[in-house]
Fold each of these.
Amino acid sequence: MITNPYRGNSEALFEGRQADSEPTTMVISATRSTCKRWQRRNHRVVVAASIGRADMVVATPTQSGIVAAGANSTADAPPIRPACAAGSTRRHDANAWPPEVNSFGMIGQDSLVASIEELIRYCVSKQARYPDVCLAGPPGVGKTSMSRMIAQKLQAECVLLSGSDMTSAARLISAFAEHGLFEDEMHDGAYVVARSVCFIDEAHSMGRSFVAWLLQAMDDVRLSSNEGKCYSFANVTFILATTDPGRLPSAMRSRAEPVFLRDYTLRELCGIVWLHGRKELDHDLDREVCEEIAARMRANPRRAVRSLTQAIIPHAYCQLQARDGAFDPTPSEVGRAITTNLVANYFEKKGIDVNGLDDNARSLLRYLERQGVTSEVHLCQALGISTRSDFLSLDEYVTRLGLISVSTRGRQLTSVGRRYVRQVFPLRAHIGHPSSNAEMEIV
């Protein structure tokens, strides 16, 4: 096994090892053009930020030239994904099934998880406080799960709160007290909160007076007062979560570094459905089954998981009982009964088509076919949609599928949309969100 601690020519070192018969492990960094040259020479090259175990050749695209990786050994590199052994026949690629789970127990967000892992290792090594951050992203992309894992890896208590409940400082102080986080001794006249992670979801809903108080707690001094008492938050990491970071005050955004979580691709969401199915059923669901659930639920993580655990699994359980007269099928038996046909038939009976369009979505398309270009206000009135967020969610999805287009005049059907009104056809390639930081593999 070789690691590359040099700041010289990594390619030459790599080529020099090819005559050896033993498996070679190199943690290096290289440009994409160098990776392609290795590909032409039949070398396996996986581009990722780091690896979790040995017997792989790993490279990372960089902005300038070929330089040594920061780690001195493969053990030092924070794992992103479990890697394959040198002699393994399974490829670490987009088609691997079941999908691989990263070190946070998640599927997706691998680059972000790798960066967080590095910062956690540094803070633990230096006994430093993990910095305050603001996790921003759409619902269901893993903000809460990521916060729990950060607390777990820091070996710190995690306090979970909702921004809408944070109307006064007393609420937060009470939460810390309920978790028994106040240290016995005061420090410089201040009550000290023990090492912990405070996660505030929907942070844009926090009350104004509480925000002003929290800004003091997050300042460099980490002190804030309430009802004549001073509190020290020097050991507390505040993790804010929001779907709309623009609604947070600029002072808050300057104290909590924004970290953006992207939407999942359809492939990643299939993996998430599989992961929850594995936990519930002790059975590996087929990829086609997971895709059917993910696509019918519009690639929405929370809806897809709820559909599996609260609808599909109970449905398959009752189907087994009705068919075989079994009183209590085991979870694995239920898992084997969940087929693509069972899932498709279940959703068809619910009026949800192959692309996840329900009666409301079809009504939108038929209305636009009859009326032509229509404003948002008139569409909401015609469809009986009273909440703008509900309309925007539907509007975003049918636009993503290419069924409608949006202009200053309003919404109108595309040529694809007009065809779709007459005959439903699969649009799976458009359902998932495009990956904003997809990893590249050259084989």
Amino acid sequence: MSSREDTHRRSVKVYFTVFASQKQLSSFSQRLQEARAQMSSAAWLRVWQFVEEERNRDFVSPVAPASLAYNLAVCAHREADYRLACLAFDQALRLAHPQEPLRRQAGNALLHVLHEHQVFAPTAEPTDHFLPTSVVVCSHEETRWQHFLNRNHAWLAHCQLVRIADASGIAEAYTRGLAQVQHEQVLLCHDDIQLCAPNALARLSRSLQLYPLLTAVGATAAQGVVWSGAGFEHCHGIVAYPEKAGVQVSTYCLPEHIEATPPALLSCDGCFIAGRAQVLKAVGFSPALAHHFHGYDLDLALRSAQAGHRLGLISDLALLHDSKGNYQSDTWAQAATILRDLHAPCRLPGQQVVANGMVLPDLAAYVQLSQQLHRLGEQRHAQQGHLGLRN
């Protein structure tokens, strides 16, 4: 250790002792930022290790504000400590204000590091054990239906398929389909999705042990007539869309761990809704939306919350959705008017949300990234807010 580094380390120790005792985290962070400007990346990482070892365990909030966590991530990346870089980028993403540019920078940097370096070792895949499943699909066009069957054959081959081809709205199709299901585990989905992760039904069965209802993307608050209208800080999940150059991945905050039971979601994207048959039938859809192709998902989420059923997130299916939706259409405007009449949160002005994202070359890369994000959530849960620097 150089004499300069030793001096800075001793200075940081004094700063930490004084500011920690007074719980003045912002003052301490400012001093640490000043030390960063005068030290190499490797030296500053060693100073941060001291902070991790010595900091007051009574603090509820992390020591680092978003900018400091981002600096730590950059230093860790330069020193090829990709695990620490990911944890620090992730912390910066969570601490940054939703409208702060740093939030998007940290989120996109996190995705690139996970994609380029495969940071976290894979966990054991779910076994092929799964519960019998009924799949209800509203599909009017034969070409789309055959495409849906072909690209999801690996898991659909084990399911009861209920196709509704003549419904005047998705809520009507799902209601009719629920009356025909033979199994307690049910998936309601669009005909333009693909579940890309292996063992999709096993993953679904595991998650439905924790929640009576599931979705792949949603929000822990409801505001406006779009599922993401409550703002980025409330949005959760991962979804991808086909692009000419490959696959466009969009990510929002993910739960810390599938068994950490994050707050229930109050809105969702209806391209994928899974649940227990008795719950889906009991909650149902508002008759006013029966003949519409929009709004049924937010309606179901709010009705389930009112009935006391928790809507959870399943984040490891690597969902691909061919359509991003058209929120400017006349049909959408009509459904939005009905939603505002049905539910008070829908009368609030919604926010425009921009997800973190990147374009990947193919579906295999997308599956790997989704698994890395899932492992990151497990790591974050295990660290309990500490970044865990190596000695």
Amino acid sequence: MNRKSLASIQKRIVAALIRETREDVRKQLLALQAVFEGHTPEEAAQIANVSVTDVKAWVDSARQRRWLNALLAKPPRVAREFDRRDAASHRAAIAAAFDKQLTLPERRRLRAIDAFLAGQPIEAAAQAAGFEPETLRVYLRRREQYGIQRVMPKNKERATRSPTRRRGPRSARSSVPVPVRKVILANRKRRKDFAALGFAEGELKDALANEHRPAKRRRLLGLKALLDGHTEVEAAKLADTSPNSIVRWRKLLLSGGLGAVLTDATRARPMKPELVAKIRTEIAAALAQEPPPRARLRLTGIDAALAGVPLDRAAALAQVKTDTLNQWLREIRLRGIAGVLPKPRRADHRPKIDADPANLHALASSEQDRYVRKRLLGLAYVAEGFSTHDAAIRATLGVTTLVKHLRLFQQGGITAICSNPRRGPSPRLRPKELQIVSDLLRTPPVMAAEQMCAYIEAEFGVRYTPNGLKSMLKKQFGFVYRPA
């Protein structure tokens, strides 16, 4: 158990001792607190007034996960037993209440209480009356605390319906509120409009069963909701669209029938004729320059949309979705045709350096430091005419690293490349301590790496692993340990 977990457990024990009332749990918490504070198990047993065996068992259980939650968990709640005092008088009051006019919930409540007072268990009495046992326990608790009158129905007079004055003939009277009546009349008018076209509900259902395009199915669902009597707002929610679209589809249906609804295609937002002519001229000029295949498809779809072709057909020509074609049209309105043309590829950067590639390859082959060797190979490939990207791949370098060393080579030559040290952690030994280690290594017999690590830790308080020591000595002094 680490120090952080131990401090957290001690805080929880102190907080639990403040609110805990169970004696056995308090003793266990006191013993554990004493052990965690540094007392022995014998001293903790005397503090908590328990046996030493119990303290050792509690300490062993404290090493397990979630042991404190299990210790502080409250015991399960035991169902309360209710008495049946004054059962005879209470049952007589319940029987008298049954003679009155009661609602169904009141009858069920009194029937359950009467069954309990007659000697049935709470579960059986609640099940006979259609109650949950907990609900019946609430009523029985009220009966014990406040008496039987608390669970009896209140003596309230039932409101009688007074005769209303007739207004007009019987046929004109209606119990439906005015707003609902307006909706009903509007729905009836809608059905009459559909019937006037010879449009039947079965035709709409058949079209909905055969249609697989999501956009067209949404239209049919909205119209079916209107035919079922829903308002435009309700139909829009059912079809996942806007009320304005529902109104437009209804007008299409009334003007051209179901075929007009299924063949109507969404068109792009109209642009000014001058702008359309200018853009189409630019598209024709771009197509004449033989652009890449994807760019040709894009320009063909945009040109078709600007020529008046429906968006779904123009998108099919460009082999894209309608939303993508809409996005291209928005780009054209904002930035012109340059916004949809493919960007020209950036030419590879091929820097020129004044160096002999053969000389650089020879220096790289004789270099022992693999990092410097990579730099020289990158410079050699650049001198041969490769781009920085290709030269970096061949030399297994990063492009940024190669560009940095190209700049160093142009400023200081080969010396700047070979003398540029790699960044890394500084040694943990001071310069004087490093000099002592260097003298020891130069004095025979040379200690092994493990012995040298032990010596450095004992003398200077710095811990090294054998591999870490070998790496540090090679970097600082060029020493290499050879196996015996």
